[in-house]
Design goal:
This protein is of the alpha/beta class. Helix content is 39%, strand content 16%.
């Protein structure tokens, strides 16, 4: 009888000790981000700063389960093969109890089966590809927007703006191909003429690709420059230099890579009047947590956080909260805690309504599995050189627009 009781106690200890069994060891959480080229390192580096800020705050209040928390970084460089390699290292060598992060969808998708096979919980901070959660892996959660959600909001703006023709330059990545498929379908259904030129994410000179669109008569109403990484800034400068966009005839829609001040360093005057998507809430709708963390970031970086930085902070804190709620570092307990969590971060109160006990209903898309449903986004335009995103003019959705009723963007002066 005593032997059976002892065996039960040992089994419970193993179940709740997780991957880091020693009470003296820190609770290690892996963080995968693009910290160097060719990836979106201008996003990855401030995201890593936000994670470190979260680590300091958690440890200052006593850590997790009485143990210090440690963030272990893996640089994906925005390359899927490297993302997979560093993720496997974090899991097998560094023995992390969970992983957060990723900026590029291709990097997240390249490692999803590792989280499944090693049964390690993962919170996707920024990847948009529907399949990140649509695959339905027990271990995978997401707090960012999806390609489909992004399409629905932005296409509503494009239709309301009366665009009749759209020229697009799309990067050949999982994210790029996924968003292009969604947008092309929506543009066709809306009767908007559209043409897409595909390019490698490492491309430096887009001039030849862009020149084909200067032959359109009349010019396209919008140029959709769907490029991440440093190319996001170069394509703006090159499109402007050949007189394509932004121009009085053609709106330039850029990726949220252009939330960073580097856009002004590379594109300069050319970036004035570009339209950018911001994930989250406009500054006038920020909560107390957002304002508090922004104050710290601004003190060190002389600018406020953008949505991707907020996502890094929130995803790490969310993982910490789940481990604390679970009462142990075992993956089953962390996953169950995430499925039942209700935690307020920088971008709102996080919940994951669809999961093990509440499967995705038939009338909901598959990507709603372990997806935060309340993610918000808005569109804005820079109207002065050197502006921060918070200083830009909000143009969509209508309830937040700072433009006169019936106006959907700020036109470039003749």
């Amino acid at each position: 009888m005593q032997r059976n009781i002892l065996a039960l106690i040992m089994a419970l200890f193993v179940f709740c000790s997780g991957r880091a069994a020693s009470e003296e060891e820190p609770v290690r959480i892996g963080v995968v981000l693009p910290m160097s080229p060719p990836g979106a390192y201008a996003s990855g580096n401030p995201m890593w700063w936000a994670v470190q800020q979260a680590v300091d705050e958690v440890n200052a209040r006593g850590g997790i389960l009485g143990r210090e928390v440690e963030a272990v970084l893996g640089d994906t460089r925005g390359v899927p093969e490297e993302a997979r390699a560093v993720t496997e290292r974090l899991i097998t060598r560094d023995r992390v109890v969970g992983v957060v992060g990723n900026y590029h969808s291709s990097c997240a998708l390249a490692a999803l089966d590792l989280f499944r096979d090693h049964h390690v919980p993962y919170i996707a901070a920024e990847p948009w590809a529907d399949d990140v959660t649509a695959l339905g892996y027990e271990e995978v959660f997401r707090i960012s927007v999806t390609n489909s959600l992004y399409r629905d909001i932005t296409v509503d703006w494009m239709i309301s703006s009366g665009f009749e023709s759209i020229a697009a330059v799309q990067e050949i990545t999982d994210w790029g191909l996924g968003v292009n498929e969604k947008l092309t379908q929506a543009w066709n259904e809306a009767g908007i003429r559209n043409e897409t030129a595909f390019t490698d994410v490492k491309t430096e000179d887009f001039t030849g690709t862009l020149l084909r669109f200067t032959q359109w008569s009349p010019p396209p109403d919008m140029l959709f420059g769907s490029i991440t990484g440093p190319g996001a800034y170069r394509i703006i400068k090159q499109a402007y230099d050949i007189g394509l966009a932004p121009s009085p005839q053609t709106v330039f829609y850029a990726t949220n890579e252009c939330l960073h001040p580097e856009v002004w360093e590379v594109a300069g005057e050319a970036a004035r009047y570009i339209t950018v998507t911001q994930i989250g809430l406009p500054p006038f709708a920020h909560n107390m947590v957002t304002r508090q963390e922004n104050a710290r970031f601004e003190q060190e970086h002389d600018r406020t956080m953008n949505a991707t930085v907020m996502e890094a902070y929130d995803s790490f804190m969310l993982m910490c909260e789940a481990i604390e709620d679970a009462g142990c570092a075992h993956p089953d307990s962390i996953i169950r805690a995430l499925e039942n969590i209700e935690w307020k971060g920088m971008r709102g109160t996080y919940t994951f309504p669809y999961g093990t006990d509440n499967p995705v209903p038939e009338d909901q898309p598959d990507y709603m599995w372990h997806q935060w449903p309340d993610v918000t986004l808005y569109l804005f335009q820079y109207t002065e050189v050197g502006q921060s995103p918070e200083e830009g003019t909000v143009i969509w959705p209508p309830e937040w627009s700072q433009l006169p009723e019936g106006q959907y963007y700020v036109p470039v002066p003749e």
